[in-house]
Structures are given as C-alpha cells and as structure tokens.
Amino acid sequence: RQAESCHADGVLKKPFQGTSLKDRVLELLSKRQAPVAPAPKHVEPVPEGTIPGCRFGVNLLLYVNFLRFGVRIPYDQIALLLDTLLGIRVSHGTLVDEVNRFAAYLGPAYTQLIRDIRHEAAVNAEETGWPVNGKGRWLWDFITRHYTLLVIRNSRGTAVVEEVLGPDYPGVLTSDGLATYHHIAQTQQRC
Question: Is 10 strand, coil or helix?
C-alpha cells in the first residue's frame, strides 16, 4: 500500500505517482545516452635505442651522464643546457630519475664487464680525486687490453679494488704502488 504523503526533514513529500519505481528507473536508464568511447590515441612507434622506462634515448642519456660525471656539471645546469641548446625542458628531478633508471638498465652489463675484467691477463688500475656535489669521491679506472671500467666511489680503499677485481686477481696488476692494491694480486707491476 502506498502512502499519500509523508513528512521527512520537515518537508511534505508526495509519493511517486504512476508506473512502478522499477519501470521508471528502467525508462530513465534507456533514455540515457550511451557514453561515447574516446577516440583511439595515436601511439608512435618506439624509436630504436630507447630504454624501457626512460624518457630519453641512449644518446641523450650518455650525454647527460657525461655532463654530470665526466665534466661534473650540476643537474640544474644540465637542465639549462638541454633547454638552451636542444630545446628539451626537463627538471633537476627528472634528470636524476633518468640517470638512476639508466644505471639500473646497465646493471647486468656492468656486472658482465666486471666478470670479463677479472678474466683478463693484465689490468692497469688507478684512482684519482673526483669531487661530486662538493664532496670528496674517487674516480677509479681499471683498464685491460679489451676493456675500460670507470667507477666513482666514496673510498680509496681496498674494498673498491676487491669489488672490481675480486680478492685474488690471478693476472698481473699494474698500479702506482698504493697499499690498497698490495694483497689483491700475486703478480704486480709498478708504474
């Protein structure tokens, strides 16, 4: 049975008149226009040399890494250079993220490079001061007949040499004679 009216919230409300509520809802739903599907987005093909998850291609990533770690230009200045010279607007944070993604992408290749260097008959090693963001760091180079590996670390200690060459490098290690290198290889040469 249907009430003639009711008082709710102090307002006189009249009951629904006519067809059943279910029929009225179905009628309203049928009058609703179907949503229009958005036009398909145009998707450009992925350019050659693109790294998954990175906004930049390999060449630009190499350039940014060179500017940051090779020439020691701060990220803010790199962003200014990219905007001024190439018309690429990018933030400091984006540059940091891209460099980190690139490093993660190169991780397996880096690991393989270390394995390959450890199997070389001879390696030349050297370290030099290399400030990063005004903090003292060390640029290490490990050079063989076939490979060159540069790493930047906080330390000038033996742990860095062991990280790259392992604790018992079987080949000939050429260095400047720093004590850091003394126990890594049995055969050593001084330069």
Answer: coil
What lies within 8 Å, CB to CB, of 84 at 6+ separation is none
Identify the pLDDT of residue 46.
Answer: 65
The closest of 60, 31, 76, 191 to 125, measured between CA atoms, is 191
Residues paired with residue 149 on neighbouring β-strands, in sequence order = 142
pTM above 0.70, yes or no: no
| Whether residue 6 has pLDDT greater than 60 | no
Contacts of residues 135-141 at CB distance under 8 Å and 24 or more positions apart, as own/partner, are: 140/164
CA-to-CA distance for 153 and 64, rounded, in angstroms?
19
Does the pLDDT at position 139 exceed 70?
Answer: yes
Task: Report residue 116 as tokens.
Answer: 């390959």
Distance between CA atoms of 46 and 149, rounded to whole angstroms?
30
